[in-house]
Amino acid sequence: MNTKPLFVRAEWDNEALVWVATSDDVPGLATESDTLEKLVHKLKIVIPELLEANGMDFSEGVLFELLSRRFEVAQGTAV
């Protein structure tokens, strides 16, 4: 297995209410899911498929790092 992980970004889409994953390391990666857990499961399937389609070797497994980002607003209570 390649010890250098592929980098995958996941950002929350407030309008669609889904996590959207993209990556510069995985050509063509653009997928979404409503939870991060489901997204990771989906990535374990989609990443090898995309690597194979792009002629890349992943015969010993694919290590990837998922960085998630979500913006929220915390409201304070007036005193």
Structural account:
- Strands 3-2-1-4 form a 4-stranded mixed sheet, covered by helices on one side.
- 18% of the residues are buried.
- The chain contains 1 helix and 4 strands, in the order βββαβ.
- It is elongated, with a radius of gyration of 16 Å.
- Helices cover 23% and strands 29% of the residues.
- It has one domain (6-69): TTHA1013-like (TTHA1013/TTHA0281-like, 2-Layer Sandwich), CATH 3.30.2390.10.
- A hairpin with a 7-residue loop joins strand 2 and strand 3 (30-33).
- It has 79 residues and is an alpha+beta fold.
CATH superfamily: TTHA1013-like
- Order of SSEs: EEEHE
What is the count of structural domains?
1
**Tally of helical segments:** 1
Strand order of the largest sheet: 3-2-1-4
Beta-strand segment tally: 4
Q: What key attributes describe this structure?
A:
79 residues; alpha+beta; TTHA1013/TTHA0281-like; elongated
Short description:
The chain has 79 residues and is of the alpha+beta class. The protein has one helix spanning 36-53, and strands at 6-13, 18-22, 30-33, 64-69.
How is the secondary structure organized here?
Blueprint: E1 6-13, E2 18-22, E3 30-33, H1 36-53, E4 64-69
Parallel strand pairs: 1-4
Antiparallel strand pairs: 1-2, 2-3
